[in-house]
């Protein structure tokens, strides 16, 4: 005779019902949690904080970020916000994080000026990558006064000057007053004492810097190292 053990079946049935109930409860709890996070104002954006800005306008950054007050904080695409903020001219890099329960924090690194290009009695600041990002009334210390027709990342003359400056010797740097580059092949250094160094293009800048430095001991005002193997003075 086969024993059907009805008690065992009832036990298995109770376990199955408990499992179903537990899964359903977890689903309800998860749904409720998502609703609280996304569907209510319990975790909505109330503030956008900008960090790392010394001269960059905060309002310009928050406007570029485009994070509306009241947006569910979990719904904010931080990578996309960082991408938008990085388009602000003065911003070199941007990172965005959530500050639960109601804040968004934007941390930026600003561009550092390398060139100061005179225009209309002001100066356009250009960073080491050639990006023109700000206009100021006074030339900042540590920048090189540079005359180019179109200061920009894709301007050949701007890029030529930026490639020459790191090659200058300490002696040339100490005497340097400004740089003029009407074209990429007509770079000229203006030195203290009304002296000039015609550099030509940016090729062989290491050699040109070496030759120009050696010629500083001479009394002539105008040095031409555009052909560094046969320099001339006048």
Automatic annotation (TrEMBL):
Gene3D superfamilies assigned? membrane protein fhac
GO biological process terms, alphabetically, are:
cell division
User: What does UniProt give as GO cellular component?
Assistant: plasma membrane
**Keywords in UniProt for this one?**
Cell cycle, Cell division, Cell membrane, Membrane, Transmembrane, Transmembrane helix
PANTHER family, alphabetically? CELL DIVISION PROTEIN DIVIB, CELL DIVISION PROTEIN FTSQ
Q: Which domain of life is it from?
A: Bacteria
- PROSITE patterns named among the record's database cross-references: POTRA (PS51779)
Q: Where is the POTRA domain?
A: 43-111
Concerning Pfam families, the annotation shows: FtsQ_DivIB_C, POTRA_1
Where does the protein principally reside? membrane
Subcellular localization: Membrane
Q: Which InterPro entries match?
A: Cell_div_FtsQ/DivIB_C, FtsQ_DivIB, POTRA, POTRA_FtsQ_type
User: What is this protein's record name?
Assistant: Polypeptide-transport-associated domain protein FtsQ-type
